[in-house]
Specification:
Layout lengths: L1 H9 L13 H27 L3 H14 L4 H14 L2 H19 L5 H11 L1
Helix pairs in contact: 1-2, 2-3, 2-4, 3-4, 4-5, 4-6
Length: 123
């Protein structure tokens, strides 16, 4: 039931709100709507994972990462999904993508939380 509600809400997101308007009030609302969309995607992926629907869970994380490739919460959720699938190769590849993306985009390393989760899953 929760999955269906989240999917229904997500389908109404049509992309960036009023992308042709460059005004502060629009920028603020645009960002709130975009963050709500990403939050709904993560909740949906988590719900899929909880119901052992691993492929749709991973696909939902991939959509979220296309929207915001700096969000470590998404990477961590995808790591857990890969681990549940038994796909260590996918997990390692995604972690390296996380490391590379954070370094390239914001000259940062993954958080301690992300690093610790990764290490615990690849043991």
């Amino acid at each position: 039931m929760r999955i269906n509600h989240l999917k229904a809400g997500i389908k109404y997101y049509g992309g960036r709100y009023l992308p042709e308007i460059d005004m502060e009030w629009v920028d603020n609302l645009r960002e709130v709507l975009h963050q709500n969309y990403i939050s709904a995607l993560l909740q949906l992926a988590e719900a899929y994972l909880e119901s052992n629907q691993l492929e749709p869970a991973l696909e939902t994380c991939q959509i979220a990462l296309k929207e915001d490739n700096l969000l470590e919460d998404t990477y961590r959720l995808a790591f857990r999904i890969y681990a549940e699938m038994g796909n260590t190769g996918g997990l390692v590849k995604l972690y390296q993508s996380c490391v590379d993306t954070l370094d390239r985009e914001i000259s940062a390393s993954p958080s301690r939380q992300t690093q610790d989760l990764y290490k615990s899953l690849v043991k």
